[in-house]
Amino acid sequence: MSSHYPRTFSHIGISVPDLEAAVKFYAEVLGWYVIMEPTTITEDDSDIGQMCTDVFGANWKSFRIAHLSTGDRVGIELFEFPDNQRPDNNLEYWKTGTFHFCVQDPDVEGLVEKIKAHGGKQRMPIRHYYPGEKPYRMVYVEDPFGNVFEIYSHSYELTYSAGAY
């Protein structure tokens, strides 16, 4: 059996300081479906408690989580940990790890305005790939909690298939 095939994306976990506010932001602004309302998970001998101890180590005590889903069925786990700390610099792109995710919307400009109206930020001007040739646009933004993400007007494949640089 060959293991050479592209895996699909299942979900991403995002830490936030206010779970209800984050669920509201992502549901209202990005239109993501709420799959599971905010729930508290406690360190105990339950299956989920044991799995979390495997991930976080002992003495994590508790956290809150909600599950959402994008229009193309990618899961979004929003986590609220008790001692949530916002980093001084929320775009440490030079460090190993995930530094952003990207959503797609043909109305980049409209989504940016909606993000700003709901407490988020626009981090840069909207840029055009293939100016004058194709209508591909992109921008970096952040949610009201400092999580950086990107918006593309067109699919990843279309944007890069001919070399966007």
Notes on the structure:
The chain has 165 residues and is of the alpha+beta class. It has four helices and nine strands; from the N terminus they run βαβαβββαββββα. β8 and β9 form a beta hairpin. 17% of the residues are buried.
CATH superfamily of the largest domain: 2,3-Dihydroxybiphenyl 1,2-Dioxygenase, domain 1
Give the termini separation.
37 Å
For the record, the count of structural domains works out to 2
Number of helices: 4
Q: Kindly state the mean pLDDT as a whole number? A: 94
Proper CATH architecture of the largest domain? Roll
Element-level helix/strand string: EHEHEEEHEEEEH
CATH class of the largest domain: Alpha Beta
Helix content: 10-25%
General form: globular
Radius of gyration: 18 Å
Low-pLDDT segments, ≥5 res: none
Structural class: alpha+beta
Largest sheet: 5 strands, mixed
- Which fold name corresponds to the CATH topology of the largest domain? 2,3-Dihydroxybiphenyl 1,2-Dioxygenase, domain 1
Number of strands: 9
Strand portion? 25-35%
Tags for this entry?
about 160 residues, alpha+beta, 2,3-Dihydroxybiphenyl 1,2-Dioxygenase, domain 1, four-stranded mixed beta sheet, 4 helices, globular, lyase activity, MMCE/EMCE_epimerase, metal ion binding, metal-binding
Topology, element by element:
Layout: E1 11-15, H1 19-29, E2 33-42, H2 47-56, E3 62-69, E4 75-80, E5 101-104, H3 108-117, E6 121-122, E7 127-128, E8 137-142, E9 148-152, H4 156-160
